[in-house]
Design brief:
This protein is an alpha+beta fold. The protein is 16% helix and 33% strand. Strands 1, 2, 3, 4, 5, 6, 7, 8, 9, 10 and 11 form an 11-stranded mixed β-sheet that branches.
Length: 284
């Protein structure tokens, strides 16, 4: 009986030890590469200046063979499903798009998260003159790097501070090379009236009036020419089926402040709204 008692106690201790071990083991694998050092960090503006010819023409790429890094904060991710498999990174000098073949990146790259990216052996290019970090696509163009490669090339640094980088006021005449990729706000603007359902990016099976190009819909603003600027929304965006800000009683467009990532398609500004709360209707 005495031996049996000790045996039961030993089993209980073993079970408790096993449970404690399972409790201490992290249930998720950390993202990023903690072995990346903080040496040879350059600004995003300097990075663009070092590869000027890549962006002057559409669809070019160059392999980065130097041991250089950039550090910045995430200003736009896929939380609203409108930035598809890419995120915007910005520092005090400029911004750039990082293209990664991975969904759900907002789960580990929140707005305001500061990271370092080791650029050696990655590619820099201009997709329709929009500067991007990624891998070659369709020959000379720039596209997404695979997620495993990206995990080896970035490291968390600092803390998450969503207010660290504030949007600048958008100006259609501001320099595209210096400002594309930045977080901006368009103030006191309104959407041009459209036929059909009048949503941001409707399903074409429900609305035959919409023109979808590359899985996205371009909406014009009354204050700008569509040849200069459009609001670009993916048909997969969480707010794609949301009605454009129109006064239902009068049918007139409502004035708004719109925040988003200012990308470019050749010489046209394409504003990418990150999430529904980026659209603030101004009280009239």
């Amino acid at each position: 009986m005495k031996h049996t008692k000790y045996f039961v106690m030993a089993l209980a201790c073993l079970a408790l030890s096993a449970c404690q071990k399972d409790w201490d083991v992290p249930q998720t694998t950390p993202n990023g590469n903690a072995s990346i050092n903080d040496e040879n960090i350059i600004t995003i503006a300097q990075l663009k200046a070092d590869y000027p010819n890549v962006f002057s023409e559409s669809d070019k790429n160059v392999k980065i063979e130097r041991d250089i890094k950039i550090k910045g904060r995430v200003t736009g991710n896929d939380i609203g499903s409108n930035l598809y498999k890419q995120f915007a990174l910005q520092d005090e000098t400029g911004a750039i798009i990082v293209a990664v073949n991975q969904s759900g990146m907002h789960g580990f790259l929140a707005e305001g998260q500061e990271i370092v990216i080791d650029l050696k052996d990655l590619y820099i290019g201009g997709y329709r003159k929009q500067p991007e970090i990624g891998q070659p696509y369709n020959g000379t163009s720039i596209g997404r790097m695979n997620k495993e490669l990206f995990q080896q090339h970035f490291k968390y640094t600092g803390s998450i501070d969503a207010n660290a980088i504030q949007p600048i006021d958008f100006d259609v005449d501001m320099d595209k090379d210096a400002n594309c990729g930045k977080l901006v706000t368009l103030k006191n603007v309104s959407f041009a009236l459209v036929a059909g359902l009048g949503t941001f990016a409707p399903d074409t099976t429900q609305d035959k009036t919409v023109n979808i190009v590359g899985g996205c819909v371009n909406r014009a603003l009354n204050e700008y020419s569509a040849s200069d600027l459009v609001i670009r929304t993916s048909t997969y965006a969480k707010f794609a089926a949301k009605k454009l800000p129109i006064d239902e009683a009068t049918g007139k467009p409502l004035k708004c402040n719109i925040t988003g990532i200012a990308t470019r398609y050749n010489d046209i500004w394409q504003i990418l709204i990150r999430k529904e709360s980026d659209i603030q209707v101004i009280e009239n």
